[in-house]
Input
Amino acid sequence: MKKSNTAFNAKLLLLFLCSSLLIIVSCTQDEISKEENLQKRTEAIKYPIKYPEPSQFVECVVTHDNNTGVVLDATDVNQTANSFFAPAPILIKVKFNFIRKTNGTGGAATADMQTILNNLNSVFSVHLSGIVSTLVDVKRIQFVNGGDDTLNSDDLFDIDNQAEHNSLLTNASLYEADMVNIYLVNSLYLSNGNAGGAAGIMDNRATIITTDDRHLEASTVSHEVGHVLGLYHTFKDDAGVECADFSNGYTTGDFVIDTPADIDFLPTTNINNCIYTIDPAFTGPCGAVYNPSLKNIMSYYGSCRVGFSVVQHMKMNSNAVTLGVTCQGGGGSSSSF
Output
């Protein structure tokens, strides 16, 4: 009987040891998996996909993470739980040019500069296409104050034609080559009629009107700065009409694959509370029905516009470097927008 108990106890001990070994192996595998994930995340921070860097940087006035207030630059990435994967933002200076009447009256208030910067930073942080892979370097663009100037001119306070607009944009005393230049005028009438703003593609100058406080509309200013950074209207069709099934999004329309095909004459009866009801009568060249994004900043859907698609962000990242308006942060300074 004693021998039988001894054998039974040995079996229990062996079973216990095997079970413990399985638990240890399982835990070890979990720890290895966690460690591998941590390593991948760390490498994503240390070695993100890089865009070409400009040959020379301009020092920025302010550099910090909007969410945490932590100062950031190209080698100082905030590694908190909220932004562990976020690469250092691309920083762009904005030069504000106030156009007033000859007697110095009219135009935007100087305090509006901060509102415009806040609006830009808010809109440019919105990604419409969903979650961006943490292993892809889609940098956040942040805008900082690059200074301001004032021009008193009755002729340029209200822009009535293209010649006056050209005169404003070529004013050497106002223009800064390494910044986004925003010209705040009372009204803007060009060849295509009255406009809330105007900007060329990959041109670091944007004109915004102050009539009815249009310059304080986040969607208006962000739309024009989107043009500055190389984006076209979502309904662009002079290179070919975009198929609603995304099949030719790289080569037609706005040349951005993840912005739904759009047209500039959607019936307003199909738009209610910034929701578009699909109309089968409006089909694209490939037979699919249009279902445009009313939220995209580069559309013409007014206050419905709130942000950019992921690929639009990627294009602007690269174009900011090409345009030469990126700047390097002063890593020792901190401020708040």
Observations:
- The chain is about 30% helix and 15% strand.
- The helical segments are 2-46, 112-123, 154-157, 162-169, 218-228, 310-323.
- The mean pLDDT is 77.
- Residues 40 and 147 are 41 Å apart (CA to CA).
